[in-house]
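FAQ
Q: What does a multi-component entry look like?
A: The components come first, one per line:
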Amino acid sequence: KAGVTQTPRYLIKTRGQQVTLSCSPISGHRSVSWYQQTPGQGLQFLFEYFSETQRNKGNFPGRFSGRQFSNSRSEMNVSTLELGDSALYLCASSLAGTSGTYEQYFGPGTRLTVT
Amino acid sequence: DQQVKQNSPSLSVQEGRISILNCDYTNSMFDYFLWYKKYPAEGPTFLISISSIKDKNEDGRFTVFLNKSAKHLSLHIVPSQPGDSAVYFCAAKRPGTASKLTFGTGTRLQVTL
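Then the predicted structure of the entire assembly, as tokens:
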């Protein structure tokens, strides 16, 4: 099975701009979660989508949003970029607890740099 | 509030020896725990997990131990290999939040020859 793919891998944006990141989950996985990794805060949960609905949300401002399509692919959008949004954005897919397993499988991430 | 803590930022172990990575948590509601390994410029790779109803789970060279009374889990790697050199994260989830993981800050393991 192909793994989780994320595009683009690297991105440089300017403060005030917006950005859209894309994630394709493992085939058959209906849950897609997004995480932000920074040196100071570690890996932090942004939100999770399951069957096109946001099911869980972390403590991030409304500038961070996402959506999921009927084929389970997901996009994450950040509007009005700030310098502090520079981070590695990771997408993970899972079976979301079916069969009693909760393992998430991560993509390689998108490295966003805001200047 | 850091609910999952990895107090050792780094660990160095000789090849062939046992590596023990530790993780403490404060939220007694956590019901499932996972360990991930991360290389630079890659996403975390799932290693092993354990449900809160168990106290041990093994998979090849990796064993995870859970001590619920102490709110402590550990990952044992035996024998350690140079390819195990990476950052290791423990993560936990609460009931009803199947895909919301809370991660520790990571421990960098270096396996030396």
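Q: Is there any commentary attached?
A: Sometimes. For this entry: The mean pLDDT of chain A is 93.
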